[in-house]
């Protein structure tokens, strides 16, 4: 079995003394694939992303079962920043809007050629390593061309592809130049089986194939809603470093003037446009305007971790989040109350500490493949939390019944949902949280992975799922 993804399970940094330090790779895909431990006998093919990763490849340092491809930095930058994160991510999350509409010019074509080169490097590495008839599971929008390329090189393989993002509806997908759209769909259809996080994204893909590629052909499509890893999260969130972070966070949150504990509205995201952090802050400000009774009694704990900072649009978004948080704090704060506690430095232990302290979790993306935070907070929160959840998150399909649904564009509606969540009685809140945790853990990562693998094993020409 082979797995291929842009981001791998491990990344390296070069320390001042020249030694290499390894740490776990970030992001939801790596969490999902964590089921593939070193004992699984799988080979995980990924890309060298940092200078440290490239140095590790050069020195021949690596982990068993991991093959890091040292793709030239320029090619990777074009493929990852230029095409994957600036074009395909924007199309599937429907993020293009004036004046950010795409310009598919000569520069785009040059970057697309790098995207092809990047995909070919993966296809060739996989083709060179796979045993006859092996199963290959390719991940995400960075590698849409790999299934088709690999099929040509190695028709004997069983090839799966899994999308961790939404898929754009045909009316939006058609924004891509026709030949590029065709290449993406044909690339994906090189797989025996394609997986999506929700039925909605799978349906959108099928609709695009019907409109632009003459249907699915022999490729089968299935849905696997990646769940939270309850055992890991519960054990990890009770480690001493998390307890330390909880104490520090409690100090930052403080207590209300009447001595009561302040309520918390928690959010944890990569600072990513689709996560809708700015409208989340606007909704919180609206809550303080519409319901001044919450002033001094609530704190918005917002962790917005840096993401894709090579792209100006992400850097600008990060700056906007920071500016708005400061504006709320200076406009509403008092010497003893900081309305927004914002942290921008990635710290997993601190995220878990915030999950444990959460009374309300705010997850309001414009559009999201799944959103694992929505699934993780109810599992970890000590007292049970109310989930305010965007109806556009993939997680909504599974959690919608027990969450408070919001339209992510509606700031006033989101403020009302926050008020409702903060006002909910402890029993109701605990009951909902328990039901949310049960739904969120229905398909833990190991089962999610094995489910895809066995569906792929079922063969190429069997019934559609
Ligand atoms: O690798 P990056 O560019 O730093 O981005 C991190 C990951 O972002 C996306 O994650 C998605 O996958 C999650 C798991 O299925 C899902 O819960 C979440 O809603 C998605 O946004 C992206 O799809 C990954 O490839 C990136 O590694």
Automatic annotation (TrEMBL):
Protein origin, superkingdom: Bacteria
Short name of any one Pfam family annotated for the protein: Glyco_transf_20
GO biological process, one term: trehalose biosynthetic process
InterPro entries registered for this protein in UniProt: Glyco_trans_20 (IPR001830)
One GO cellular component term noted in the UniProt record for this chain: cytosol
Entry's Gene Ontology molecular function annotations: alpha,alpha-trehalose-phosphate synthase (UDP-forming) activity; trehalose-phosphatase activity
SUPFAM superfamilies in UniProt: UDP-Glycosyltransferase/glycogen phosphorylase (SSF53756)
Family: Belongs to the glycosyltransferase 20 family.
Name of the protein in its database record: Trehalose-6-phosphate synthase
Organism: Streptomyces cyaneochromogenes
């Amino acid at each position: 079995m082979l797995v291929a993804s842009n981001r791998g399970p491990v990344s390296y940094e070069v320390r001042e003394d020249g030694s290499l330090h390894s740490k776990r790779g970030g992001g939801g895909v790596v969490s999902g694939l964590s089921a593939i431990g070193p004992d699984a006998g799988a080979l995980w093919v990924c890309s060298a992303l940092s200078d440290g990763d490239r140095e590790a490849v050069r020195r021949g340092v690596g982990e068993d079962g991991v093959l890091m491809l040292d793709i030239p930095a320029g090619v990777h930058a074009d493929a990852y920043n230029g095409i994957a994160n600036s074009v395909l991510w924007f199309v599937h999350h429907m993020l293009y809007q004036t004046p950010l509409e795409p310009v598919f010019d000569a520069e785009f074509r040059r970057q697309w050629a790098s995207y092809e080169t990047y995909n070919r490097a993966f296809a060739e590495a996989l083709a060179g390593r796979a045993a006859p008839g092996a199963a290959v599971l390719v991940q995400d929008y960075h590698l849409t061309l790999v299934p088709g390329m690999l099929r040509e090189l190695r028709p004997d393989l069983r090839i799966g592809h899994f999308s961790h993002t939404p898929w754009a509806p045909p009316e939006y997908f058609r924004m891509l130049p026709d030949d590029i759209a065709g290449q993406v769909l044909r690339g994906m259809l090189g797989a025996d089986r394609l997986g999506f996080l929700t039925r909605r994204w799978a349906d959108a893909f099928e609709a695009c194939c019907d409109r632009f590629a003459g249907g699915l052909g022999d490729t089968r499509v299935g849905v696997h809603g990646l769940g939270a890893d309850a055992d890991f999260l519960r054990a990890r969130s009770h480690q001493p470093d998390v307890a330390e972070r909880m104490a520090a966070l409690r100090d930052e949150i403080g207590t209300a003037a009447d001595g009561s504990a302040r309520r918390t509205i928690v959010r944890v995201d990569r600072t990513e446009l689709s996560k809708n952090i700015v409208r989340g802050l606007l909704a919180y400000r609206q809550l303080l305007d519409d319901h001044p009774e919450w002033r001094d009694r609530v704190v918005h704990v917002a962790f917005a971790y840096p993401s894709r900072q090579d792209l100006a649009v992400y850097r600008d978004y990060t700056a906007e989040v920071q500016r708005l948080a400061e504006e709320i704090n200076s406009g509403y704060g008092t010497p003893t109350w900081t309305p927004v506690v914002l942290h921008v430095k990635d710290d997993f232990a601190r995220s878990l500490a915030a999950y444990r302290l959460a009374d309300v979790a705010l997850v309001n993306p414009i559009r999201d493949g799944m959103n694992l935070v929505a699934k993780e907070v109810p599992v970890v929160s000590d007292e049970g939390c109310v989930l305010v959840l965007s109806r556009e998150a993939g997680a909504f399909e599974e959690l919608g019944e027990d969450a408070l649904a919001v339209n992510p564009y509606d700031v006033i509606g989101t403020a009302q949902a926050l008020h409702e969540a903060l006002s909910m009685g402890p029993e109701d809140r605990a009951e909902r949280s328990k039901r949310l945790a049960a739904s969120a853990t229905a398909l833990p990562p190991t089962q999610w992975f094995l489910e895809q693998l066995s569906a792929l094993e079922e063969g190429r020409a069997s019934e559609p799922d």
